[in-house]
């Protein structure tokens, strides 16, 4: 039964465009209460923003973070946020009085240390600036999917419980699976490849698990991977073009759908040229002045390349292609004219590795040879190799780490700052 | 470098509307080859459908399932599927000759037994009718998200590695987490509730894990859960209305975006009335003729109610509300006027349980009491309870099992038939 005297709920963001004089119903949390000599200000926070409510000095306002319902009259006030406020209001708490939060959520910045924030994640994420970071993540995921949907991709959901480690036995979590060992998937790599044989183009957004024994600002034991894989490619450059489309979708969705978060964080969105600049690994080593037999790029090399891409190409992204085969997983496709190098790439975003991608092997005989060359037995990969023995086209793909993307976007010092409930060597809660 | 003589790729579905006489490039798999006395027919399968290629009788066509590229001339032929075919064609294999599949993919139905299909999932999913089932799943997920996005929901991604079983210690997988025990989340329940405190309305699509010791046609050890949770509700009826919107989004997306799959499977889409019919648990027992102290509905009761909903309300869905508190998890909100019953519901879809949902407790003191009543200690739930102590509004939510949804939609006898790579008591691969 609807109370006829009860107005419909209005969201904070909609108040400035509502007709003054209207009776309005607000629902949200007590973001701040300020008791002055002659008046009490109550700021209500809902999912869209903040609204100011003016009450008598002796009004009974529940403590901060208590959920409340406010019914009052909307009036224009140039001094109030958004140019409007609610007066002649009745405030009704919707739960028991809230305990005092471990940090003041109404201040412009969260002042608590990172461990305190993480220990109180459910409360810390309520802070508007913190919340904005996840809004970027949510918009990014939506933009990723939308871009790939538009390119004829099919979303898949593949198992996280697997019989075998994807790429190596290291860094894998073991599960007691009805009395026998199983593992948590380190990536959907094997499954997304098999599904190229079905849908040609597939993507998956889901958790991946790495038993990272390191405690760094860039590693998590569980993170969200944005994976894509596509068939009928010429080589890894087609994969890179698809990655560019996915990134454009992510940035576009942030611009369109998370504009308030971008404002709140005062962000500059990344510059993504029509074509992402590409440098061969061999040339990258030369550019950064490293020895020509270096097997990998060091963090300061990546930083240097990021600055170079910005200066030379006006791009926040640069792809390094051709990484030595010796450092890539066994399913990597070699560079046809020189098999020391690979048809794979890393994408650096503002000088940090964000994406790994490339072309994969597709001929069954090449898989057998590559697995034997590692001293392993193709029979151990029998169910994965079925897809290739029964016909797979040239294909490739990439994986974007969601948290790394957001961390670099907001220039977070620690990836845990942008993860809802981070998991690492020491942390399994909340 | 692009070969100037090489036409752009055309998809099979686009051929009927392309101008006859055009030189076309097809890419796909050899779906079928038929060598007749005077001519060889090659049917190429790509992600959009099938295309017929006509070749000389002595043409060298690679075996079925080999990926190929075909360049030829498009001509009209009323006898050919779609009214067009490709002639004067060159066929180039894109990998080694494919091994003969374990079952014939070009036949209208997969004739292999379910275990054989599951053992060869990467190949079985290539069958157009099988593939159509996943297309329904993918469209459903998209429709779910789209409907909730439109209602102001925020997508979240919460950890699957947790320190504690969500609802009970039973049926939970244990993980070796850097030498100490962790568990795989049975649901995102605790996290989605905490995030209501941040975003008011949240959803998550992701894997959940149940160490189901039963081997049934309806249970999986890992499945995809479509979870939603929203704040500032009056009671569970608001949750049910949101569920109705999500289901409408799912059905609408299938209609719009998976029409070919619906045709291929000759499906009747479910009837979803503007308001889902609701019957109280107490009345449901009476309707089905069960004893009034039955704690749950038996499968044949659910079937009966499904038929009744269809006959009485023309609805494929019926909600049973008010389930006895004794049978619901501790965070369930009681029915205010009679706390033997709960403000929760099950949604039956064509007579089978598809969704569980309802209103949750939101006052911290009620949580403490509910946990103590189970003989447990609120301190063991400290991090979860933080959200409530620091202010949570009345809220509720629901969870839809993706595979159950698709299984019922296509009337699959076994949930494994609609799961890409099912996991159960006996199966951990492929």
Sum up the structure in keywords.
alpha+beta, five-stranded antiparallel β-sheet, 430 residues, homodimer, 2 domains, BirA Bifunctional Protein, domain 2, eight-stranded mixed β-sheet, 11 helices
CATH architecture of the largest domain in chain A: 2-Layer Sandwich
Structural class of chain A: alpha+beta
Overall pLDDT score of chain A: 96
Q: Return residue spans of chain A where pLDDT drops below 50 for at least 5 consecutive residues.
A: none
Description:
The structure is a homodimer of 430-residue chains. With 430 residues, the first copy, chain A, is an alpha+beta fold. The first copy, chain A, folds into 2 domains: 82 residues, Nucleic acid-binding proteins (OB fold (Dihydrolipoamide Acetyltransferase, E2P), Beta Barrel); 298 residues, 2-Layer Sandwich (BirA Bifunctional Protein, domain 2), CATH 3.30.930. The first copy, chain A, is built from 11 helices and 16 strands. In chain A, the strands form 3 sheets. In chain A, strands 6-10-11-16-15-14-13-12 form an 8-stranded mixed β-sheet, with helices on both faces. A 5-stranded antiparallel β-sheet of chain A has the order 3-2-1-4-5, with no helix packed on it. In chain A, strands 7-9-8 form a 3-stranded antiparallel β-sheet, with no helix packed on it. The longest helix of chain A is centred in the N-terminal third of the chain and has 23 residues. Chain A starts with 22 loop residues before the first strand and ends in a 21-residue tail after the last helix. Chains A and B meet through strand 1, helix 2, helix 3, strand 6 and strand 7 of A and strand 1, helix 2, helix 3, strand 6 and strand 7 of B. Strand 8 of chain A pairs antiparallel with strand 8 of chain B.
């Amino acid at each position: 039964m609807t109370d006829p005297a009860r107005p419909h709920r209005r969201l904070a963001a909609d108040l400035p465009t509502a007709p003054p004089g209207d009776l309005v119903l607000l629902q949200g949390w007590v973001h701040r209460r300020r008791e002055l000599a002659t008046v009490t200000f109550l700021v209500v926070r809902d999912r869209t923003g903040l609204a100011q409510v003016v009450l008598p000095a002796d009004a009974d306002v529940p403590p901060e973070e208590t959920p409340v319902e406010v019914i009052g009259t909307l009036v224009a006030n140039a001094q109030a946020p958004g140019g409007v406020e609610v007066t002649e209001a009745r405030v009704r708490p919707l739960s028991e009085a809230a305990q005092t939060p471990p940090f003041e959520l109404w201040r412009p910045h969260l002042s608590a240390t990172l461990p305190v924030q993480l220990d109180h994640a459910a409360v810390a994420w309520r802070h508007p600036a913190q919340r904005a970071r996840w809004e970027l993540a949510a918009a990014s995921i939506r933009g990723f999917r939308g871009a790939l949907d538009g390119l004829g991709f099919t979303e898949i959901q593949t198992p996280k419980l697997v019989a075998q480690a994807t790429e190596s036995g290291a860094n894998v979590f073991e599960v007691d699976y009805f009395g026998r060992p199983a593992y948590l998937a380190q990536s959907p790599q094997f499954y997304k490849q098999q599904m190229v044989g079905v849908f040609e183009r597939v993507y998956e957004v889901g958790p991946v698990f790495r038993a990272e024994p390191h405690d760094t600002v860039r590693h998590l034991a569980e993170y969200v991977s944005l994976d894509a894989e596509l068939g009928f490619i010429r080589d890894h450059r087609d994969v890179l073009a698809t990655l560019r489309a996915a990134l454009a979708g992510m940035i576009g969705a942030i611009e369109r759908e998370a504009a308030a978060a971008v404002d709140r964080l005062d962000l500059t969105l990344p510059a993504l040229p029509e074509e992402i600049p590409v440098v061969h690994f061999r040339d990258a080593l030369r550019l950064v002045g490293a020895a020509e037999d270096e097997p990998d790029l060091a963090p300061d090399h990546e930083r240097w390349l990021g600055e170079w891409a910005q200066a030379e190409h006006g791009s926040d992204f640069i792809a390094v292609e051709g990484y030595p085969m010796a450092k890539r997983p066994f399913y990597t496709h070699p560079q046809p004219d020189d098999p020391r190098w690979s048809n794979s790439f890393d994408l650096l975003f503002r000088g940090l590795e964000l994406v790994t991608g490339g072309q994969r092997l597709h001929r069954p005989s090449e898989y057998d040879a590559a697995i034997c060359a590692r001293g392993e037995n193709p029979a151990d990969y029998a169910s994965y190799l079925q897809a290739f023995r029964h016909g797979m086209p040239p294909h490739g793909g990439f994986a974007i780490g969601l948290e790394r993307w957001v961390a670099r976007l907001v220039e977070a010092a620690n990836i845990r700052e942008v993860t809802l409930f981070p998991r690492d060597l020491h942390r399994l809660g909340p």
